[in-house]
Amino acid sequence: MMAKQVEHDQLYIGIDGGGTKCRATIYSAIHGVLGTGLGGPANPLHGFERTLESIMVSTQLALQDAGLRVEQVHELNAGLGLAGVNLPSLYDKIMRWDHPFKQMFLTTDLHTACIGAHEGEDGAVIITGTGSCGFVLVEGKSANYGGHGFAQGDIGSGSWMGLEAVKAVLLDLDELGPNTALSAVLLKHFNTNTAMGIAEQMAGQPSSSYAKLARYVLDAAKAGDVIALEIVKTGADYISRLARKLLQQNPPRLSMIGGLSEPLSEWLDPQVAKQVELPKQPPEMGAIYFAMQSIRRQSEHLV
Amino acid sequence: MMAKQVEHDQLYIGIDGGGTKCRATIYSAIHGVLGTGLGGPANPLHGFERTLESIMVSTQLALQDAGLRVEQVHELNAGLGLAGVNLPSLYDKIMRWDHPFKQMFLTTDLHTACIGAHEGEDGAVIITGTGSCGFVLVEGKSANYGGHGFAQGDIGSGSWMGLEAVKAVLLDLDELGPNTALSAVLLKHFNTNTAMGIAEQMAGQPSSSYAKLARYVLDAAKAGDVIALEIVKTGADYISRLARKLLQQNPPRLSMIGGLSEPLSEWLDPQVAKQVELPKQPPEMGAIYFAMQSIRRQSEHLV
User: Fold this and answer.
1) What is the pLDDT of residue B87?
2) Cβ B199–A175 below 8 Å, yes or no?
3) Which residue ranges does the record assign to the ATPase BadF/BadG/BcrA/BcrD type domain (chains A, B) (predicted)?
4) Which residue of chain A has the CA closest to B199?
5) Residues A178, A181, A183, A188, Cα dihedral to 10°
6) For B177-222, what is each residue's pLDDT tens digit?
7) What is the spatial distance between Cα A114 and Cα B190, in angstroms, rounded to a whole number?
8) Nearest to B174 among A146, A175, A176 (CB)
């Protein structure tokens, strides 16, 4: 009885923190979505203070958008999905934050993406954007694969494709590797005529800079360039293996999320591709479901 | 007449700047080597002020070692070999330095390594340490290959081997790639039992941290691990191609320098390996030859 009443009177905020932006959605169990807000980068691995700031900016904008007062932040039950909080030390550090919410429930961005994609139900997700990783949640048990970061992991992601393209072009321009149409494309992109001109501009660049080159690889592969084809097929093969690994755990659904999920789909193993279904809700709604589920679990323990 | 006299009265200092240390040698045309000094990192691409500081520390220690007075720095004709000064902007920035030397002659670390290896004569060098690259100097014409930096170039180097090892191990531990003996080795090295434990410790690490793992790859290859063998052979194949590219330009000699040159030698194409000769002098002596040659050229222009 108590649990039901609490749930119906609640205001929720779902927050999805990412490397480039932070999205917040305010939701009422009675009225549905009330408003949304967009803040800056919120990856605690790349800046802890910045993350808290982006969370607060997106929260304030969502409150405003919802027509709520600034003080009503204290009424919000917050669900947060953030990268890196699978690390206990980072999880604890964020939970020690003197946050303004009524309650705060924290989990990984993968977890909230998965809950969102399957509208609170069990399932699996593959994320392929700047990075790549897989996550599966079945009957309370979760597992994740990949997501080991640039340049040592994240095969099939945009940053990985961009890096493989730069590597192949540098070999080609030094005449120490096979020719590729990507060389002319990247020389033009970097407005240079030497391998060193490309190398210097990319030296020390973050994964997002490499990810910007992924579209060239996809275009060149479509046009039949052998090297670009090899890169795209190697990436897609990894994503297919990752999908089969997730499907072994019998999730009811599998979704792909992120900027490369659509262009990669045609290169996947057809047996895998036909099992991929569209995500039902975005990660910030997943964060709201996570807050709801956490509160329900609390109430159950109280009864 | 004038040129000869100047040359015989000169004191020289040869400076070899590197990513981890800076070596200086003071040399007199009459008495030979007078003293040496060792300073900290001197790669201007990774810290300009730090580089100048390391140059001055190694110079002062060399002066002390030579039994010279601090003020005698003004009598030194300096030859400097530094990474990155093939970039005109960086070359100019260092040449604008208000240096204490009598004269200063600047070139790349590759150039001075090559001049040193062949005692001032024409030749080619391959450097395989933390990074990898090739350089050839024949009749005043030079060319360089590779050296495009971590993680996009420097195939066959220590950092490249370490990165390939980490990639293979993360795939193995996720059960998304073949088994390798390197997995047990790296789990032990990083004192963890998960892929994420390795990924987190290596995230954002510089190339030198990856290079520390190269010895594991070489050991595992010797012990017959298929993945380690593939890494070492791929690296050695690139170095062999690089050597053939340099040999096409008919250098009188070819030398290999750097921590991986010895362990890699047994994996090289035998046709290449038999043409590799030991370097005659270290890069800091190459920097001294460079200063001498530059002064001789000045004198010739003055006559």
Assistant:
1) 80
2) no
3) 13-288
4) A148
5) 170
6) 999 999 999 999 999 999 999 998 998 898 989 999 999 999 999 9
7) 30
8) A146
Look at A166-170, A299-303, B145-149, B225-229 and tell me which has the smallest mean pLDDT. A299-303
The domains of chain B are located at 2-119+280-302, 158-273
CB atoms within 10 A of CB A298: 13
**Region of poorest pLDDT, from A38-52, A265-279, B66-80, B269-283:** A38-52
Q: Which is more confident, B230 or B88? A: B230
SS3 sequence of chain B:
CHHHHHHHHCEEEEEEECCCCEEEEEEECCCEEEEEEEECCCCHHHCHHHHHHHHHHHHHHHHHHCCCCHHHHHHEEEEEEECCCCCHHHHHHHHCCCCCCCEEEEEEHHHHHHHHHCCCCCEEEEEECCCEEEEEEECCEEEEEECCCCCCCCCCCHHHHHHHHHHHHHHHHCCCCCCCCHHHHHHHHCCCCCHHHHHHHHCCCCHHHHHCCHHHHHHHHHCCCHHHHHHHHHHHHHHHHHHHHHHCCCCCCEEEECCCHHHHHCCCCHHHHCCECCCCCCHHHHHHHHHHHHHHHHHHHHC
**A145 vs chain B: nearest CA distance in angstroms?**
6
Distance of CA A133 to the CA centre of its chain: 8
Q: Do B149 and A199 touch (CB under 8 A)?
A: yes
Nearest to A135 by CA among A278, A207, A242: A242
Integer Cα distance of B166 and B163 in angstroms? 5
The complex scores an ipTM of 0.88
User: Chain A residues with CB inside 8 Å of B167's CB?
Assistant: 152-153
Residue B114 C-alpha, separation from nearest chain A C-alpha, in angstroms: 19
**φ/ψ of residue A35, rounded to 5:** 180, 165
- Yes or no, beta carbons of B152 and A174 under 8 Å apart: no
Q: In this predicted model, which residue has the larger pLDDT, B124 or B43?
A: B124
* DSSP-based three-state secondary structure for A196: helix
| B2-119+280-302 topology per CATH | Nucleotidyltransferase; domain 5 (3.30.420)
The reported pLDDT for the residue numbered A6 is 42
Report residue B294: phi and psi, to 5°.
-65, -40
pLDDT for A5 equals 44
Burial tier of B70 (Cβ tally within 10 Å: 0-12, 13-18, 19+):
exposed
Q: What is the pLDDT, as a whole number, of residue B303?
A: 60
In CATH terms, is domain A158-273 a member of 3.90.180.10?
Answer: no
Q: Do B199 and A149 touch (CB under 8 A)?
A: yes
Domains A2-119+280-302 and A158-273 share a fold: yes
- Is A146 within 8 Å of B176 when comparing Cβ atoms? yes
Distance CA A175, CA A189 (A): 20
Chain A nearest C-alpha distance from B276 (Å): 19
In angstroms, the CA B32 to CA B14 distance is: 12
Cβ–Cβ gap A174/B146 under 8 Å: yes
Residue A152: what pLDDT? Answer: 94
Cross-chain CB nearest to B241 (options A146, A176, A245): A176
Contacts with A167 from chain B: Cβ below 8 Å: 152-153
In total, the C-beta contacts within 8 angstroms joining chain A to chain B are 65
Measured CA to CA, the distance from residue A193 to residue A196 in angstroms comes to 9
Residue located via tokens 């399957």? A118
